[in-house]
Amino acid sequence: MRANTAERWIQDRVDRYGPVSKLSLFGVPTVLLIGPAANKFVFFTRALASQQPRSVQRILGERNILELMGADHKCIRGALAEFLKPDMLRLYVGNIDGEVRRHLDECWAGRPTVTVLPLMKTLTFDIISLLLFGLERGAVLDTLAGDFMQVMEGMWAVQVNLPFTAFSRSLKASARARRLVAGITRDTKAKLERGEASRTSDLIACLLSFTDETGARQLSLDEVVDNAVVALIAGHDTSSILMTFMIRQLANDPDTLAAMVQGNNPIPSPSLDYICLDTKKKIQELNSDHTMAMAIDIQSYSLCRDEEIALSKGDDEALTWDDLAKMKFTWRAALETLRLVPPVFGNFRRATQDLEFDGYLIPKGCQVLWTAVATHMDASIFQEPAKFNPSRFENQSASAAPPYSFLGFGAGPRICVGMEFARIETLVAMHYLVRRFRWKLCCKEDTFVRDPMPSPLHGLPIELEHKAASP
């Protein structure tokens, strides 16, 4: 992972043993499953339980959604989904918009160079802290952010609980963070009882107000704290990586950047009709021998819809839910970034009983490994898989990739519950970035490593130019 050769390691095993093979990882008998059918099996088989390293469980708590199964998992997921459903998220678009603008004004504007990954982590942490806990910037948020940096450093470390180890520092930081979150939870509960808060105030209020289908099951304090901590980690870490690698991609891809700028910048009103009519005419003139040209022009036509956003917005007017729904090209670019650099390389399941897949026996207790890159980079599924091509996600026709090939957000009952939140956060941030700045990479060597999340060389330093300063 740290040498960024894991994709080749996986492919070598597939070439040598086929899509199903057995091995030993971390001293545990393991089965590696590859392919769309295998992905469906892994994500939909109830007898395959989620399995995180013991270090993750000790740091995040035993009642978090990653560890639970059956009715308990369904209840916790229902509570999180209640807060992250579209009807709730549309209430928070303005808050996210405000945080993005403030962040860019304070941390990007007027600076000749910036380092993208740490700034993106700060932005997404501020956003998720506001929506989860109602925490605005200040000493409490700064303390929480510092603790979570240490939490992340030790989550996948060797479990040696000695004072000088990353795991020990992470455990202590987690305990401090959990005490702070527990205090916020108790305060929020008191506000709910006094009528000073509602279930839409933030995630903590929503979790405290949640009841199951029978109306009898409520979440305990430990469950609220455990899952608020998981949501805080998941809500800022993966999104920050996605946006960092989008910026990295756009620096080397002027065509995609130009398309995104065109879709997010104001243009004179008559140009919109001209571009759309001209593109329609071109598409009508194309024949079946010009498949690639047609794909390019259809993509250009889709951008015409994105341009309506900028035409209707003033410089100081916040984006709305309806605006985000029109940013289809930007989101396709985000999905293609997730295909090329998935934040989660893969993960494990554990067989709770003897299972059979494709004629192979998977014994009870065996560890099952799935990986996103195995299908993401399969040339038989995604033509020219190393090429950045957002049009892959333009439609869901029969010619598109088969189901369970793209695992940017997982699949099945455990598909990322925060997928819609990630979409909103990414679209808002990228909208303002491409409208306000130009950039180029400082490092000629355009590489990244995984530890275990992908991280670009030196955190991706870029040279920055504010568009308002250009003639």
TrEMBL record:
Family matches, as InterPro entries: Cyt_P450, Cyt_P450_CS, Cyt_P450_E_grp-I, Cyt_P450_sf
Keyword Oxidoreductase: yes
GO molecular function, one term: heme binding
GO biological process, one term: sterol metabolic process
Domain of life: Eukaryota
Protein name as it appears in the record: Cytochrome P450 716B1
CDD domains reported in the protein's UniProt record: CYP90-like (cd11043)
Pfam families tied to this protein: p450
Cofactor: heme
UniProt KW Acetylation keyword: no
Keywords attached to this entry: Heme, Iron, Metal-binding, Monooxygenase, Oxidoreductase
Family: Belongs to the cytochrome P450 family.
Annotated residues for binding of heme: C416
Organism: Dichanthelium oligosanthes
